[in-house]
Amino acid sequence: MFKRILMSVVPLLLLSGCWFGNTPDYDEFTTVFSGERTMLFDGDEKWGFEKFLRQELKDHPEMECIDLLKFCCQAAFGTDTDAGRSKKDFFYEFNRSMPDDSIDLIRVTSPDTARVNLAAWKAAGLPPEWLFRMTVMDPDFSDGKEKLQEYIQIAARIIPERKMNFSAAEFQEFAANFPVDRLKNIAHGTNYLTPAYRLIHTRNFNAIPVLKKAAALPQKAGIIAIDGRAASGKTTLAGQLKIILDAQIIHMDDFFLPPEMRTSVRLEEAGGNVHYERFKEEVLTSLTENKAFSYRIFDCKKNRFNGSRMIWKSQWTIVEGAYSTHPKFGKYADLTVFYDISPEEQMRRIYERNGAKAAKTFQNKWIPLEENYIRSFNIKGKADLILH
Q: Which of 214, 237, 270, 381 has the fewest C-beta atoms under 10 angstroms from its C-beta?
């Protein structure tokens, strides 16, 4: 009996796309940066533009030529960077949207882009200005025109496989005759059934869980500390949050231990490889009182102090870098994040970023010191949020 029921249900699941073949959720993807572009992996499976396009065509058979061209253009050119033009439109659309937590917050549409549902964003209690800043923060891709032609060809190849309202030839002719100056600002056709959304870059995916945690803080403001392993993405994440939250950033690299303090006794101390005394003296008190202040910058390349950094009073302040949640500082942060990475990927990134000689120094000196700190104080286990 069960077998007969299963055999009757499986075909329906397959036809509906509920069994397999749907696009993974945004937080299931691993992002890998490749120059200006991003690669997405679901486990070991790489998701290229064609996979996302096939899913879009399946979910929207009512699509017109203009909708398909818009899909290709968004994947090729990325987000709209004209803040002045789009701000008024964004808040008008956002204010009209009714909160709806039954809709997915994010739909990934290409290796580089994803659509954020306005109703779901509002239902999640996330500030609209955060989303708006995300939609305009990324630069145009330098290879956008070439990618667009590539994506149009992929679409034309797939169209005959689907029951569309137009042929491949009709789509190619439509794309060829479409005004070039409107390619980055195409409106959907009247038959395209989709909730109101805005486009973001997939590189910002790891910022989303941080934003959710930040929005849930009672005071709706505070200090975010981003600790973690070397080359895990701490500085990149902090840079994204700086724009999204309109935040100030304090870099723990500015508190590199001066040469005269790098004694064997100090470096054997768990977490000793940071000038925590100076951080407490020059930063901590003013930071927790949300005052404007400045601190000296230690330049590890010149091996000396080199200028100062001004930190202005702000709703949000980010402290990023290894040792940012050192027990010596107490519980000063309102939200703590630990950025993890596998040893293999860590060394690959360091080698690519710093070169072979520096990578060896990291492997033999700096990473063991960080690992001792992480292990001794259970830094990862105590974090409010762990990212990978």
A: 381
